[in-house]
C-alpha cells in the first residue's frame, strides 16, 4: 500500500482573536509553541514566511515577526541563512516528552481547574527560555559564560566536598550561610557604596525571588507600585501576581521620571528601579534624579526597590555607587544577583533590607523553600574570600567592554545608518532602533532569516513603544561570532 504523506500542519487554521486581552503576537507565539510541544509541528519542519503567515491569518507582518522573534530567542525555532525559519532540530527530548498530551474537547471540559491566580501564572510560561540549547547572538540576559573559570570552581567544590562539616549538609539559616552574608556585605561596601551589616544581607535564589518576596511582603492588594516604562517586564508580572496595581512610569535620559510618577500616582508605595543600568535602555539614572526619587520616597513613606542586577558593568568610568549609599533612613531596599557576574544557573542573589524587615524575610524564605543550597553558598564564599571573584569581575568587565565595542563597530560597519544605538554606558545589552528611513520590521525579518536573535523592545513595555527597538545581548558571544552575525544580518537586509 502506498505510504500516505505526513499530514502538513495547518498554519492558516491557527486561531488568534483580535478582541482578546492578550496581544496578537503573544497569542500566535503561544499557539505555535503549543503545537511544537504537542509534536504537531516536528523538529526541522519549515514555518511559513512572515509575509505568508500574516496574509493567511490576516494580521500584520509585525505580529508574526514578533512571535517568531520570541520563539527564536527561546530556541523553539531556528533560522539559517538560505533556508528560512524552521522548528529547531535540537529540542531536548525531555521537553517534548514533558509536553501535555493533546487535549481533546472532552478532556478540556472536565476535571479540576486552575485557580485564577494559577491561570495568570501559567500564562507567564512564555518567559521560560529553553534550557540546554546554546544561546545564539544576540540573545540577551546571558553573561560571558565561556569566561567563567570552571577549573577554580571545580577545585573549590572538591575541597568543600572533602571538608564541609556533616551538620552543614543539613540546613543553613534561611537568611543564608553566615560567612557568605559577611563576604557580600564587605564586597557591597567596597564596590557598590552600600553601607550595610552582614545581618542586613538576605540570600535569595536570584533577583527574581528577591522581587517576588518584596512584592508579597511589602505591598497590600490594590496598593500601587511604580515600574519603569520601558522596564523589566518579569518584575511587573510579579507585582501584578501579588495583587499590586502596577503604574508604568516613563523613563527619560535621566532615568525614571519622578514628576511623571507623581502625576500618575503620587501615593504609590514602592518604586522599582534599575538605576545603574536601566533595563532595557542601558542608561544610568542621574544623581539629581536619584535624589528626587529619594525625596519622593521620604515624603510618601514609600520604598525604593533598587535592582542592581548589572551594577558591576559600567564602561564609561567607574561603576556608579548605588542609591542605597545615598540614604541610611531605611527607604531603599537594595538587591543584586550573581547571575550576571558568575552564571545564572547558580541561582544566588541577595537583598539588603532594613533591620525591621529581617524577620519577615526569614519566615518568608523558610515557608517558601527553606534556604538556598548550603554547598553552593559555601563554594561561593570561598570564591569571594580567596580573591577569585574580584579577579573574575575585572576580567568580565574588560571582556564585555570589548564585546560591546565589537558589536557597535560591526553594526556601524555592516548596517551603518540602518540602526541607531541608544545607550552604551553600561550593562550586557544594547538597545538599537531602526535608523532614519529604515523600517524596524525589515530589520526584524532580515534578522530572522539570518538566524540572529534579539528581544523586541515592546516585550519590555506596558504600552506599544513609540519606536520599536531591538535589544541585543553581546556578553555571551566572542568578537568573531558578533562580526559574523551582524554580517549575515546585513546580507539578509540587502537581499530584502
Ligand atoms: C533587570 C533584571 N532584574 C533581575 C533579573 C533576574 O536575575 P536572576 O537570574 O538573578 O533572577 C534580570 C535577569 O535578566 C534582569 O534583567
Mean pLDDT: 90
The main pleated sheet reads as: 8 strands, mixed
Number of domains: 3
CATH domain class of the largest domain: Alpha Beta
Q: How many strand segments?
A: 14
Shape: globular
Description:
Helix 10 links the parallel strand 4 (224-229) and strand 5. An eight-stranded mixed beta sheet has the order 3-10-9-8-7-4-5-6, with helices on both faces. It has a four-stranded antiparallel beta sheet with strand order 11-12-14-13. The protein is 41% helix and 13% strand. Helix 7 crosses helix 14 (374-385), helix 15 (388-415) packs parallel to helix 17 (479-495) and helix 16 (440-450) crosses helix 17 (479-495). The protein has three domains: 1-98, Orthogonal Bundle (Arc Repressor Mutant, subunit A), CATH 1.10.10; 170-386, Aspartate Aminotransferase, domain 2; 391-495, Alpha-Beta Complex (Aspartate Aminotransferase, domain 1). The protein is globular and about 60 Å long. The chain has helices at residues 24-37, 50-57, 61-74, 93-98, 105-109, 116-122, 150-163, 178-191, 207-218, 233-241, 258-265, 287-300, 358-369, 374-385, 388-415, 440-450, 479-495, and strands at 77-80, 84-87, 201-204, 224-229, 245-252, 255-256, 270-273, 303-307, 332-337, 349-352, 419-421, 429-434, 455-456, 469-473. The two termini are 45 Å apart. It contains 17 helices and 14 strands. The longest helix has 28 residues, at 388-415. The chain is an alpha/beta fold and 496 residues long. Mean pLDDT is 90; it is low at 96-107.
